Amino acid sequence: TSVANPFAEWLDSEKGAETGRPIWRERLSVRTLSSRKCTPTTRRTDAGPETVVDKPETHFGFLAEDVQKVMPDPVYDDIAGNALDIKWNNITALLVREIQMMRVDNATAQVAIDAKRRSFCMGRDT
Hints:
- It comes from Sphaeroforma arctica JP610.
- The chain is mainly alpha-helical.
- It has 2 domains: 1-32, no CATH class; 64-125.
- The chain is 52% helix and 6% strand.
- It has a two-stranded antiparallel ribbon.
């Protein structure tokens, strides 16, 4: 008997009464594997037309050394401080944060420009 049989018998006695049929013994019993041999099959497919996948295009990226000069946080470096690689999983969040800060700076600058413009216009009217 398998180790699962006592457990299956318990399940049948406890849970089989709820369903009205003892199905757990069948589900948990050890089954012997079939001795049938599987025959490998192959499928032949027609090749599609040849197409060029590599298209000439401009690629953009970062050099770890350049990023380290501007913002050292998202750069892996060695003990000597030489930039090795960029922490790509952090770079997007840091870039979004910098954009948010730049928007605040731009809004503040725009308020100052508008105030100067108003004071300049008022000075011309008098």
